[in-house]
Amino acid sequence: MSFWAGKKVVVTGGAGFLGRRVVAGLQTRGAQNVFAPRRKDYDLVHYDNVVRLFEDTKPDLVIHLAARVGGIGANQQNPGTFFYENLMMGAQLMEVGRLTGVPKFVALGTICAYPKFTPTPFREEDLWNGYPEETNAPYGIAKKMLLVQADAYRQQYGFNSIYLLPVNLYGPGDNFDPASSHVIPAMILKIDNALRAGQNEIELWGTGQPTREFLYVDDAARAIVLACERYDGADPVNIGSGREISIRDLAGVIADAMGFTGTFKWNTSKPDGQPRRALDISKAERLFGFRAEMPLEVGIRKTVDWYRNSRPGLADGAALL
Hints:
Elements: E1 8-12, H1 17-28, E2 33-35, H2 47-57, E3 61-64, H3 72-77, H4 79-99, E4 104-108, H5 137-157, E5 161-166, E6 168-170, H6 183-197, E7 201-205, E8 211-216, H7 217-230, E9 237-239, E10 244-246, H8 247-258, E11 263-267, H9 282-288, H10 296-310
Parallel strand pairs: 1-2, 1-3, 3-4, 4-5, 5-9, 6-8, 7-11
Antiparallel strand pairs: 8-10
């Protein structure tokens, strides 16, 4: 906990789904000066706002979580926006951080940065062995540029920036906007609507055959805090749960948690996305002692319970990380 004593910390996206947990985790570990800028006050796509943020806060550590994100549909509809806004936020934050002498910069990448046909489990060494899956490549490449920038700045300026690659996150407080949500909240919303309407069949996108790995949001926050404290290396590091599950089986897990006994109709005219996603998570445990704790079935039930208790409105898709 002494690591955080006296440190001024900026967490971009700190009011979002993951960011709230990271801020709470920092405070639990002893950080007393944590600032989470809001987009209405500091739109980080614009350089002058980034400069003003650093002038106002003078941080010792920056954790960059803010991102323009969404599921397959949102990525297909907004590839230019997703590329430009994610690229500009990351590049400008790291550049101004370098210019102002920030001692450490923690950048969050995405599993979407991996090549479409990466052998599973994904190893960090495979990041550059092909082009990302087409439906979210602009987003994935924009976030991958943070790794390029971090490496370049480390070589030329000795800038301490680390790069973490989380898998798909889920948990209470997730984004349930059907226009931008990821697969778990999207399924929960569809099943809930079907149960309310008395329907016994639900249409889901794709074939159900692709696999994914999911990480409970509280586990992800803990990983980030540990990396802040314990890791200063140049190598990118995967952050995941170590469990691969097909979309079809995931639908069954969520259906069980919600008491849905009907059937799923798979709309094969819709894209599947990347065929498989599962990470080699050994480096995170070796380098900074992180291992996920929340079992998927338990995490799904916690997410469903939160959703049913709060009946959330539509979340802001601009800063969900």
